[in-house]
Amino acid sequence: MRAHSCDRPADLDVIRDSYDRVADTYAEMVTTTGMGDIRRHPWLKASIDAFADTVAGLGPVLDVGCGPGTVTAYLAERGLDVSGVDLSPRMIENARRRYPYCRFSVASATELDLAAESLGGVLGWWSLFNLPRDVLPQVLTVFARALKPGGSFITGTHAGDEDLVRTEAYGGVSVRWTTHQWQPAEFVELIERAGLRPVAELRLPADEFSGPGLVVMARRPG
């Protein structure tokens, strides 16, 4: 039994091209500034560690929107059976070069073919904010159905009142995407409607890299 598919965002190819353009710069910034490296951010590291402890032994873990693979590799070092997928082929090239011992493939969050109850854990770590507001609930439902009972989902996203249209990012690279921001209560409600039970929430203030953030961990009831 396969989880249901999702609508394809109309601008998916544009978003993919934008992330391909920014991939090398982003990977370099992770190395030189620590942006996106959870080891340098204690609260984010604590969140990922809690997720890793929760899903250990439950089955495979999928990092959706893994970018250059930093978090995927960290979870692999923790002993999890984890793989990463990303919309951008260039991001995946960076991930494979940096972490050749991990498994990575190119795929959109909206095009995953996931068997029901096949995963112990799913991450959407600051990787779902480009999904339109009518598509994100579909993706969350697919994740929920793919989790085994007792499996966990963790996500991080941008918190705010309005959407932001981006034309450049990460050192001035030209991009075209929309950052869909969510109010925490609204975002948590989406996760609940997908069939998951939120178990922890972390609200983060703006920092040198981005505005306010939100981390939510949820579990599929078992």
Topology:
Blueprint: H1 12-33, H2 42-55, E1 61-64, H3 70-77, E2 82-86, H4 89-98, E3 103-106, E4 119-125, H5 136-146, E5 147-158, E6 164-169, E7 173-179, H6 184-193, E8 197-204, E9 213-219
What does this structure look like?
The structure is a single chain. This protein has 222 residues and is of the alpha/beta class. It has one domain: Rossmann fold. Helix content is 34%, strand content 27%. It has a seven-stranded mixed sheet with strand order 3-2-1-4-5-9-8, with helices on both faces. Strands 6-7 form a two-stranded antiparallel sheet. Helix 1 runs parallel beside helix 4. The longest helix has 22 residues. The model has no long low-confidence stretch (mean pLDDT 94).
Note the beta-strand portion. Answer: 25-35%
Distance between the termini: 18 Å
Would you tell me the overall average pLDDT? 94
Assign the CATH topology. Rossmann fold
Main sheet attributes: strand count, strand direction, barrel closure: 7 strands, mixed
Q: Which percent range fits the helix content?
A: 25-40%
Shape: globular
Going by helix content, strand content and strand pairing, the class is alpha/beta
Low-confidence stretches: none
Whole-number count of domains:
1
Strand order of the largest sheet: 3-2-1-4-5-9-8
